From TrEMBL:
Subcellular location per the Swiss-Prot or TrEMBL entry: Cytoplasm, Cytosol
Listed NCBIfam families: fliS
Database matches in InterPro entries: FliS, FliS_sf
Lineage start: Bacteria, Bacillati, Actinomycetota, Actinomycetes, Micromonosporales
Entry-linked Pfam families: FliS
Key words of the record: Bacterial flagellum biogenesis, Cell projection, Chaperone, Cilium, Coiled coil, Cytoplasm, Flagellum
Assigned protein family: Belongs to the FliS family.
CDD domains, per the entry: FliS
Segments forming a coiled coil: 28-55
Protein name: Flagellar protein FliS
Cytoplasm in keyword set: yes
Highest taxon above the source species: Bacteria
Length: 126
């Protein structure tokens, strides 16, 4: 097997064996990465790369929204609304090629990711 195939298999195995909390953090990590790369691509006028990264970020937000159980806890409906806002902003940012909108989403996603990371660590420890 070649190195890229081994890496892909490792990544797939990591996803397949991850706990729900770890999967959530992996999604957020990738969301933040995509948003940062989209910002950079927009600044460099690399429209195709920016579109690819923003579109992937949209897919992640859709996954986060659809996997959210709004009846599980009282804050879930508000989080669903945040995901809806993110998706709307990502679509608008992609159309307008607006790095500032992408940055605003990233700046919101980062503390959400960090909060979920802390919650997952507390669940494992507790």
């Amino acid at each position: 097997m070649t190195a890229p195939h081994l890496r892909d298999r490792y990544l797939q195995d990591s996803v397949n064996t991850a706990s729900p909390g770890k999967l959530l953090i992996m999604l957020y990590d990738r969301l933040v990465l995509d948003l940062g790369q989209a910002e950079q691509a927009l600044a460099a006028q690399e429209r195709e790369v920016a579109h690819e990264k923003i579109t992937h970020a949209q897919e992640i937000v859709i996954e986060l929204r659809t996997s959210l159980d709004v009846d599980a806890w009282s804050g879930a409906p508000a989080l669903a609304n945040i995901y809806g806002w993110m998706l709307t902003e990502l679509i608008g940012a992609n159309i307008a090629r607006d790095a500032a909108r992408v940055k605003a989403i990233r700046e919101l996603a980062e503390p959400l990711r960090d909060t979920w990371r802390e919650a997952a660590a507390a669940a494992v420890a507790g």
